[in-house]
Amino acid sequence: MSLTALKNEAIASPVAAKTRSAEIVRLAPARPAVRSNRFAGYAHRAAVVVVPPFIVLVALLGLWELLCSGPGATLPPPSTIWQDSYDLIVSPFFENGSQDIGLGWRVLVSLQRVAIGFGLAAVAGILLGVIVGQSVWAMRGLDPIFQVLRTVPPLAWLPIALAAFRDSNPSAIFVIFITAIWPVIINTAVGVRNIPQDYRNVAQVLRLNPLEFFAKIMLPSAAPYIFTGLRIGVGLSWLAIVAAEMLTGGVGIGFFIWDAWNSSRLSDIIVALVYIGVVGFVLDRLVAGIGAFVTRGTAA
């Protein structure tokens, strides 16, 4: 509204003109205020997530430096680790030969094995979990066997795998597979058994065939449980590959730790442990993020 029109309105109706002027003044800066409040909200949430772990990390590093700086300390302090393993920290992808490579390349080799083993475990685990959850007889026959096999430690499977495959790479993949499959099977079976009876009744009314029931009813209903099993499985896969590579050799992150121990390079071992922890955290967040997107944030 122009100033002339506002002036004319003020002459005709002072109360209405005063109200209209107040509305204009009040509404004019609303958009910048909303943007500012939104930015402040994002900054606050980021600070809540980042600041507490950062403070705890700094405190732990300071305590570690204090305790391990003395002459009788058996572990290196953070300052010594930075000096001894500077190249591993700042250059994770250097390559000076077939065995002299950065930790980034070693992590990628291990992740390749994890991707194959965990992918096979996810597919087989979901299919077996659906069978066990949908069929009472399959549950009675297979569930006790699964409960027994899942308690076997991952490394106990390694000699069997080496004897069967005669090669370290497929043996490591098999150890990942056999470690990750059990939580996927169990959680998928629980999710299928917990499908509401109303959903099953609707499927019968609509006369869905087994394939349509699997795709439209079973998978969406059991998805939160399935992704819970996948999160547990991917964490166990990463644990298993590091342990298996210590025994099978190669260029993975697990073998690097074992080789560094034989060479008394404690600083390199600690740096590798940090790499392992960060990668494991990223894998867990990745699967959790995919699960939240697929299930629209629904919790199991």
Automatic annotation (TrEMBL):
The chain crosses the membrane at residues 46-67, 114-133, 145-165, 171-192, 238-258, 270-294. Keywords: Cell inner membrane, Cell membrane, Ion transport, Membrane, Transmembrane, Transmembrane helix, Transport. It is a multi-pass membrane protein. This is Nitrate ABC transporter permease. CDD domains: TM_PBP2. It comes from the Bacteria. It is found in: Cell inner membrane; Cell membrane. Belongs to the binding-protein-dependent transport system permease family. The keyword Ribosomal protein does not apply. Pfam families: BPD_transp_1. SUPFAM superfamilies: MetI-like. NCBIfam families: ntrB (TIGR01183). The keyword Thylakoid does not apply. Residues 107-287 form the ABC transmembrane type-1 domain. Gene3D superfamilies: MetI-like.
